[in-house]
Design a protein that fits this description.
single chain; mainly alpha; 9 helices; 65% helix
Length: 196
Amino acid sequence: SLIAATRRLLDDHLPGELTVRAIATEARVNSGLVHRHFGSKAALFGAVITEIRTEYVSQLTPEMSLLDQLLAPIEWIVRTPLVGRLLIWAASEGTDPAAFGLDHQLITRAATLMEASGVDDPESVIGHQLAAALGWNAFETALMHGLHQDPAAVDEARDQFLSHARQSLRDHISHAAPLGERSNEEPKFISRDAAN
């Protein structure tokens, strides 16, 4: 498929390096098919992000703690470098980030859960966490090199980053309005269907 071919090529190439012709060649189809099905390279990249998000959301369970639910969109970006590269490419090209699923239900749900937990300005809190995750994602290789870390230690570095994000979210929740002043509605788990 075109999406699978694009994902394969993006393993070794930056988004800006890929052409519609190269993607079509990898998929063994005519380049006109890319335009007919997606309309543009940006729309194809958006479909790649949607597929990756769907794969990630399918792993979420209703038993997840509130913190795990809040951390989900941040972890999605940190653990999926391709997502960050595509989002950064989209921003540099002037593509609307909404077309790339940046405003999808997973992120919206995290802000809703924080608000229900009594956190002031939850969109800002989630926005800061996502910006940090995108920054980590964009500069992970340079950061690892600059900090004189073994590139093989990247998984441990990602875990440390997510541990700090978790603690930050925990701190925001613990400083939220007292339980009696919070919304009476218990935050509910985001369903796989609602995240798409």
